[in-house]
């Protein structure tokens, strides 16, 4: 394995150079104006996989953005790992808040700044670099590797699950390895064993058939902005608890043992408050901030729009107003049932004088991993060796909606070996990725494939991990 | 006077042609990107006034957008009318909802379509055309005329009142004539004797120092969008009544006689509902829609912004969210006191975990005219002669914040001889002005100056109106 570690160290500048080219491609999956960029990024990745030794690497079209698929069967008797990642990124607005342009990667203060640097292009590129290093140093990978990289993760992976279902034999693996989660700190590695689910919708309130002058019509019609505000204010209690009836019905309570573990890992409230720049932390009463984020569901507004947004004032009653909402879910909440409950609640509270339009977006189930599975323990050993500190087993407030379908369709354990930090500004301006993690992370990934080869081998002494 | 009426009829195409050039200038006062357009429009108007015989017509700079000022003293013994209008227009967004571009005037279905066609460039241009017709037909106006046309009406006239105060002797007049209000219908002339006041502010709710991922931070901080919604929902009761304590304290009750007059003028609720395209009318309980619009105060949201507004979903907790609000006021509410009350209310209800930023915009007092003043009766006769039907004396839900300062500084009655229709889509896409009103309105304006010369003359038998 030392030869492989030497290879990634030797090629570090070339790896970084390739990552910059990857980051420069504006593969924003949510915006149709970027469709050609998304396609170009998929082709770029397939080329990179071929260069890393995956002769069959290819772009697989879907009804939406394409998948990039590849496999390298070293020996049918060796275990198989499926690596999953995503090459699409979030929109960049507000673009004027970026210090350097989001698609012009730049290094400052020991970090790579670019949209996607942390979520998820940086980690994806590191896996590809490791595949290539194994090929360069050993001529082959230490086990069979299948690769599936999608372009719709940021829009809820609408076409991945059907693909998984249809190709479940072709994708069969002993473990699924994903690097799209976070560590606890730059030198505190972690494996995520719990993810929240996601359910999202858009609410539009339509009033008059066209915008009206608020002097000439104020007092005559219901202002859609006010109707919207009134409606949305019914979604939460004053203490931050979701007020939609039934919302918490299926929430699995946190066992006292896990509450204690979470308390041990929790950052100091003062430090968190200062880091985020808020006057006070806030959320559902009766739970700590980390419990709320890891193990309690939330219902968040993600956008509000309607009327005049420019400088100064415009005395208008707009024809419509709208909001984007998303719920983060925990076991055993079902996204479709939650959306049913939220929609019912909104319809029941629909203000008079306006019409409600509801539209659902992507949904993903929450996930809890078997933390003692050999594959997860193998990744933990690799992280400990690379970072010099034991890996923590954590939950995460975010969602990777596709994780639960991987488990359901492939029946394999999912190893969430995250390399990001919660401070990476993912989904926000100035997203970045730590260069120190880049270096130690490459070592962790090299070690992880070797450890997985070893841990998943049907019989000891047969695998590449022994070399 | 027949010679003057003949002159406007003969020159009709040239007048319309000039109006189109005026409408093509994008004099949007609210947007700094249009500063040069606003200046160009002022210069264009000063030229037009010089061509209409006002040798001293000039652009007067202010700390904001310039005024256009002119005067024509025919004879110091004749009465004097001050004509006021505004050459600035509202922003045009959403621009994609215009059938033809807002600054490319077009005639369709007997209407002139353009931003400002009705509010207020069309009526301003008609007065200028009448001045010119008097000069062409008679060599002079029937009385002394002073002209004051501003470029900041749509942003609350921040620099007009100081100008009025400083130039009150130079602007002294026996009446102020303004055409920036509406008729009751294309053949139902009206003089507005009551205007609502205006008070506006912007609310910003600031939370974390930068946008956050709603998975990684949802449940930890107060989402500024949710804090904003919660805060704004406290401004009204469920029945549409403003819930700010003290808001209605100074409202002068409607006398039963005026309630009866308003009831007689009110459109059928069904027709109004259909015209506006709403499922139901809505507003403060206990009052009819027209009472609410003419004689009751309102507090309206004019804009909401924050977070993601594009296609699809983006799971973000934005760093801030905001809203634009404006109140329409009736006698004897004071705008500054109302803003104090609204700001106190907002501060008292400020949600935890966020910081509130409040910013005041323009404010204008409500106005009630002396409906039996000879100048108002003179204008009513002119309208009746031109439209063949008696002018109604109405209130209006809108505001012309500058009207009340005219009364206060000049001590003259204000004659609101409106030529617009409530259906003109002012402040909205597809603003338009009726061509039939254009023609009959020109006649009404010709007659109005003659009637005013007569009605305001110190002794009968001395004025141009007798010719």
Automatic annotation (TrEMBL), chains A, B:
SUPFAM superfamilies: Zn-dependent exopeptidases. One of its GO terms (biological process) is proteolysis. Keywords: Hydrolase, Metal-binding, Protease. One of its GO terms (molecular function) is peptidase activity. Residues 193-353 form the Peptidase M20 dimerisation domain. The keyword Nucleotide-binding does not apply. It comes from the Bacteria. PANTHER family: BETA-ALA-HIS DIPEPTIDASE, SUCCINYL-DIAMINOPIMELATE DESUCCINYLASE. NCBIfam families: PRK07907.1, PRK08201.1, PRK09104.1. This is Peptidase M20.
């Amino acid at each position: 394995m030392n030869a492989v570690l030497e290879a990634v160290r030797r090629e570090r500048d070339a790896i970084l150079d390739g990552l910059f080219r990857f980051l420069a491609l504006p593969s924003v999956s949510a915006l149709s104006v970027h469709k050609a960029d998304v396609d170009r990024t998929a082709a770029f990745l397939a080329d990179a996989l071929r260069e890393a030794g995956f002769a069959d690497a290819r772009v697989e079209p879907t009804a939406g953005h394409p998948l990039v698929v590849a496999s390298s069967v070293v020996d049918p008797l060796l275990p198989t790992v499926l690596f999953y990642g995503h090459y699409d990124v979030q929109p960049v607005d507000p673009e004027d808040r970026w210090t350097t342009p989001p698609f012009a990667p730049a290094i400052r203060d020991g970090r790579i700044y670019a949209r996607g640097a942390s979520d998820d292009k940086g980690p994806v590129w590191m896996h590809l670099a490791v595949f290539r290093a194994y090929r360069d140093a050993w001529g082959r990978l230490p086990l069979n590797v299948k690769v599936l990289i999608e372009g719709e993760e940021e829009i809820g992976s609408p076409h991945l699950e059907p693909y998984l279902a249809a190709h479940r034999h072709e994708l069969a693996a002993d473990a699924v390895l994903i690097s799209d989660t976070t560590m606890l700190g730059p030198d505190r590695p972690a494996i995520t064993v719990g993810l929240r689910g996601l359910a999202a919708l858009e609410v539009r309130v339509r009033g008059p058939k066209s915008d009206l002058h608020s002097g000439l019509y104020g007092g005559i019609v219901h202002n859609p902005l006010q109707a919207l505000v009134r409606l949305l204010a019914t979604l939460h209690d004053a203490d931050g608890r979701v007020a939609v009836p039934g919302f918490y019905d299926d929430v699995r309570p946190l066992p006292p043992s896990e509450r204690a573990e979470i308390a041990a890992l929790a950052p100091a409230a003062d430090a968190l408050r200062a880091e985020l720049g808020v006057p006070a932390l806030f959320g559902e009463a009766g739970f700590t901030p980390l419990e709320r984020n890891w193990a309690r569901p939330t219902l968040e507004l993600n956008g509000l729009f309607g009327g005049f947004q420019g400088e100064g004032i415009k005395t208008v009653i707009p024809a419509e107003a709208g909001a984007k909402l998303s719920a983060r879910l925990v076991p055993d909440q079902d996204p479709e049932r939650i959306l049913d409950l939220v929609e019912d609640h909104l319809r029941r509270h629909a203000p008079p004088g306006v019409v409600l339009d509801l539209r659902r977006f992507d949904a993903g189930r929450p996930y809890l991993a078997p933390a003692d599975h050999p594959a997860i323990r193998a990744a933990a050993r690799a992280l400990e060796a690379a970072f010099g500190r034991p890996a923590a087993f954590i939950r995460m407030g975010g969602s990777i909606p596709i994780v639960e379908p991987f488990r359901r369709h492939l029946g394999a354990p999912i190893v969430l070996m995250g390399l990001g930090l919660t401070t990476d500004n993912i989904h926000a301006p100035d997203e970045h990725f730590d260069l120190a993690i880049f270096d130690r992370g490459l070592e962790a990934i090299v070690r992880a494939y070797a450890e997985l080869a070893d841990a998943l081998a049907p019989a000891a002494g047969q695998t590449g991990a022994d070399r």
